[in-house]
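During the reporting period, our protein records have gained a structure token line. A sample record is set out beneath this paragraph:
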Amino acid sequence: MLKTRIFTAAALLLGLLIVVFSATTQIWALITLGVVLLATAEWSNLIGLKKNQRIFILAAALFFGLFIAYMHVTPFSQYQSYTILALLGIASLFWVVIAPLWLITRKTCTNTLVMSVLGVFLILATWAGSVGLHAINPLLLLGVVATVSIADSAAYFSGKKFGRHKLAPEISPGKTWEGVWGALAAVTVYGIALCYYKNFSLWLIVFLWLLVVMSIMGDLVESLLKRKADLKDSGQLLPGHGGVLDRIDGFIPTLPIVLFFIYLQLLIGF
């Protein structure tokens, strides 16, 4: 199982590096939109949608994704940045306000229409985050991806080795506080290295800690949905990792939040 997990992760990393540095932003947007559709299909399964409803949600995600991607060639081009900012803002608000309440109460919304709209919003916001960060600088995107991936790997191995105290046993019995501390420690080392070699402010490390917390929250929210649906994984597409949502759950909060604050600075000087 571990060998399969490592092999799949290595293949995904290699593919990511090739595409990130070789694709234009427009090509990157179209490729990642395909990933968005896979994630949306898995989300619709987690919330128990019927076949026709799943098709409708997939069509909606595809339509809005293409509309946002090509909005610059429509009469609404002047609203593209504000549309993306609103999408990112709604997603950020969910992760800062609603998601913690879900995890505290261990309850989610039971209305399938609301959950369908929410899923499209959150997953499209993740896509917009990845595209926006890639457009600014592919290294910026990789920096966020590296932070979440390092935290995830460190949490997995430190939890396996030292895990004693459960983080959220009723949501995800396998996660431990030792895994959290391992993730924070690994990301701290990564942050120190960045600050030393790139001459960044040490405040970067605090920001990376916040990303770790948000990535764990994304993982727990997806685990909560899987528990409600009585599923171990969101899918079986990625050997050793489950489905697409299982692989990107840590990015669903982090990518939109990072780009949201960047856009606030660019658009309104926040």
Observations:
- The chain has one domain: 2-268.
- The CA atoms of residues 172 and 220 lie 7 Å apart.
- The longest helix spans residues 203-229.
- The radius of gyration is 18 Å.
